[in-house]
Structures are given as C-alpha cells and as structure tokens.
Amino acid sequence: MKKPILIFAILAITIFSSACRNVGIPKETSVDVSKAEWAIVIHGGAGTIKREFMTAEKDSLYRAKLAEALSVGSEILKNGGTSMDAVEQTIHVMEESPLFNAGKGAVFNERGQNEMDAAIMNGETHAAGAVVNVHTIKSPISAARAVMEKSAHVMLTGEGAEIFAEKQGLEIVTPEYFFDQARWESFQKAKDKIDKHGTVGCVALDKKGNISAGTSTGGMTMKMYGRVGDVPVIGAGTYADNATCGISATGHGEYFIRNVVAYDVAALMKYKGMSLENAANEVIINKLKPIGGSGGIIGLDAEGNTIMTFNSEGMFRGTVSSNTKMVIGIYEDEK
Ligand code: ASP
Q1: Does residue 156 belong to any structural domain of this protein?
Q2: Annotation marks residue 199 as catalytic
Q3: How many domains does the chain contain in total?
Q4: Catalytic one among 82, 90, 136, 199?
Q5: Is any atom of ligand 1 closer than 6 Å to the C-beta of 231?
Q6: How far is ligand 1, taken at its centre, from the CA of residue 234, in Å?
Q7: Ligand 1: does its nearest atom lie under 6 Å from the Cβ of 230?
Q8: Structural domain of residue 101, as residue ranges?
Q9: How far apart are CA 221 and CA 110, in angstroms?
C-alpha cells in the first residue's frame, strides 16, 4: 500500500471508531459498565427492629450470617452458576441458622408447632414451586424447588408435600429439629397477639441474564393452625420475571396476599414503564404503609439494579453485585 493511502486508511478507521463510540454503536468487545454481570440481594425478615433491643453481640451475629449467606450466593454467580442455585444455597444458610424465622428457629403457631412455607420461581421460564405448612422437611426451599422441577404442580401442602419431599431424597427431620429456645420464649410471651415478622428471601441475577427469586418462612408467631401466608403464594410474596424483576417479600402476609405485592411491582414496571425503585416505593410506601401493611421487599431487575424497600422499623438485608461492594443493613436509619 502506498504511503498516502495507508495514512488515509488509518485516519478513516480512527474517525469511524470514534464516531461509533460517540453515537453508541455497540461493538462486540464493549462492556456496558452500568449493567451488572451478576447480582444478588437477600432479606432476613422485617419488623420492629430497634437498636435498644439488640445487643452488640447479636447485631454482629446477624450481620455475619447475612454476609455468609451473600458470599455463598455470590460465589455461585461469579463462577457462572445459575441464579436458581444461588437462591437455593443462599437460603439454605439462613434456614439453617436459628437467627431467622425459617427452617431451624422458625416461629411457633398457636399449637406451639413450627409450620413452614416456602416458594421459588424461575424468571426465565416462569416455572414456580411452593410448599405449605410443612413440619419435617429440613429445607423447605429445596422442597419448593423439587415441586417446581420434579412434579406437574406448583404447590403442595402438609403431609403431601412431606411425602413428596422424602421421595425426592430430601432430608427429613423430626419436628424438634426446628425448635429454638428464644423463639419458644417469645411464643410464650406473645400468646395472644400476632406480631412476629421474620422470613428469609433471596433474589439473584446470573451471567446468562436469568433472574430467580425464593422465600422461606415459619410464618407469624401464634398464627392459626393451617394458616397460609404470602410467601408460598406466587405473585404475593415471591415472583420472578426476566423481563421485569424478581421479588421476595417479608411482612404481614395477609396484606401482601390481598395486594398481590410482588406481582404488583412487576406489573407497574411492565405496564407503566416504572423503574424497579419507583415501583417498589409505590407499592411498599405509598400503598401498603397507609393501610397498615407492614414489611418490605427485596428485588432486582435485568440490569442488576437492586432494591431493599421497607416501611417497617428495620429489615435484615444485604446485597452485592459484580460492580457493587457488599452492603449489609438492619435498621431503618442505615438506608
Ligand atoms: N410474610 C410472612 C408471613 O406472613 C411473615 C414474615 O415475613 O415475617 O407468613
């Protein structure tokens, strides 16, 4: 190539590539820094969480457990694992800890039993699974996943769910496994009022762009035998849709069922074009708070934007993504 032609060619390539940058023509190698490759957000329940009722030791136990749960999920996502695995494994950490109202340490119903609900949903396929009022399945979230993946149904209750879980090879324990002394004492104190919030939840976005959401709970202290909360009701306490968001809720379940909270957030995004943050505020702050529906939600969208929105005095919560550092919070004034 002659020298002037070569100079002209180099010049033309330079001008063209800078024009591409300016008008934002996507190049295969370009990385959109605003979009997270992966993201995860968790909650460990919402309610009356005041510093004066929390010892420094308990405070750090909660924070450490939330960080441990987030680390388990984020390792899976970093290594290219699915959001479904991340949600299930992250929730296992919290189910196995008596600090939270799910699995071991679940609250007691009016009969003094631990009666648990859980649900999980796949935002790519909209497949969902839930178990309701189970007493012997060590990990209700894994049972919910088994219902989704191994049965033709969305929801199984009580003994039917337990028989199914056992057939699927899930670990079955005696009801005593879930007993926690501190919960028992608060059950004794709360005998005639229902006020205990708890629950654990996780929403994750994986490198393939798939969102999953899961929630696991013991429900509310002193709930009636047989009561079902919002957690296993798809669209109320748990929802996932790649095109909008994944949501996991915690709070006074009856309000979350009546207001179809998780789906309402997704619907505001889908039909009104709202951002996840605005939709979450609309539902949790503007709609639920005035009617006394205390609690909160965690969620994320396809870009990896996360929210941890609540109208209660606190919510155990945390999030981390490929482009944000881990954040853990408990009280309202840490927002
Ligand atoms: N939402 C749960 C229920 O009503 C309780 C909670 O989140 O604390 O069963």
Answers
A1: yes
A2: yes
A3: 1
A4: 199
A5: yes
A6: 14
A7: yes
A8: 39-331
A9: 8
